[in-house]
Amino acid sequence: KLRGYAYLREAVILYMRKPGQMVTKEIYPEVTGVSVACKGGDSPEIQAKLIAVISTSLNVGSNRICIVGIK
């Protein structure tokens, strides 16, 4: 069973490019760190695999990723 929570705030900016033409721009926050708690998270092999996937997919440095095991 996988459970996760993410708290993101987004800003929506409306502006006029030309009279009568509204443009919407969405700005999302930059991910600065990730914490994962999972079964097997104490294993160095699992940690290495998760860190590789997370750092690549979210463009976060490995020093900004924390993996811990749960029972």
Q: What would a concise description of this structure say?
A:
With 71 residues, the chain is of the alpha+beta class.
Explain how this protein is built.
The protein is of the alpha+beta class and 71 residues long. Helices cover 21% and strands 35% of the residues. It is built from one helix and four strands, in the order E-E-E-H-E. It has one helix spanning 44-58, and strands at residues 11-18, 21-27, 34-38, 65-69. The strands form two sheets. Strands 1-2 form a two-stranded antiparallel sheet. Strand 1 (11-18) and strand 2 form a beta hairpin.
Mean pLDDT over all positions: 82
Per DSSP, the total helix count is 1
Gyration radius over CA: 18 Å
Order of SSEs, N→C?
EEEHE
Low-confidence stretches: none
Which class of secondary structure composition applies to the elements? alpha+beta
* Overall shape: rod-shaped
The count of DSSP E runs of length 2 or more, i.e. the number of strands, is 4
Which descriptors would you attach to this protein?
71 residues, two-stranded antiparallel sheet, two-stranded parallel ribbon
